[in-house]
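<backbone_tokenisation>
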Amino acid sequence: MRIARTLEEAAAFAPSAVTIGNFDGVHAGHKQLIDTVVEAARERGVHPVVLSFDPHPAAVVAPGRKPRLLTTQAQRCELIERENIESVVILPFTAEFSRLTPEEFAERVLAKALGARVVVVGENFCFGYRQSGDTEVLADLGLRLGFETRVLPPVKRRGRIVSSSEIRRAVESGRVQAAARQLERPYAIEGEVISGRGVGSKQTVPTLNLHTTAQVMPAHGVYITRTRELGDRRRHWNSLTNIGNRPTFGGGEVSIETYLLDHFEDPAPIRISVEFLHRLRDEKKFDTPESLKTQILRDVGRAQTYLRRSTKWIRSSRS
């Protein structure tokens, strides 16, 4: 993938068909925009380009409303690349950039730098100083500057409009299946495997302990998950993951502990990604470690039943 971070670098992607947004999560709505821009580029014989910004514009214009992000910039680029996009522009969003009028943005960025022939946006798209431009303004500017504007309706899943904010709410309330429907893949967090307190391996079951910088975390509880190794080996396992304070062992800081259900061979993974498939139950305090271990074995049985019934979904999550 080619990534441009200045207007000068972006000029290498002209002429282009462009879609614009933050693309946090790269969800079903984003994919519709990307699919449309790829098709438009094929029709016009130009480059399909995704235009995004760093940091999130809210971090500059309204820091108090800055959202927790579902994905890092690197993750977004990887997910966008899977959708047949080879060129991404990530412009620094500064206070100066935020003051561009809609006319200045359209002329400098879209027409001159990117040589846009088609611009694809959602119907709620706003741009320019204080979001003073909307899709009608963009279409008028396109007529003047030589690009076609295509406006797409929102994507819905089970009657709800797909959005990054809706996905955040679903994940943080533990509704990971609802999040997966909107993302068209399981929500995942990744990070380094760290040493735990050693209690699990001695008194219950051995687990991988995850340290993550993810900004959006599933609600405390026990989940059926899929664990992938990041790096060269790329092994994968069905798993159970507990997020919580370990109340049976006195509580404390939040931990993310994953128990692998499949056969495991050394060496232990260094970095992993944990995909959340289904929420089994709340975290609960047990009277003894033995009682907790008994419950974990029940959870394993329920997880194995779920996974057998969901083989098709699990296979699709590996891609």
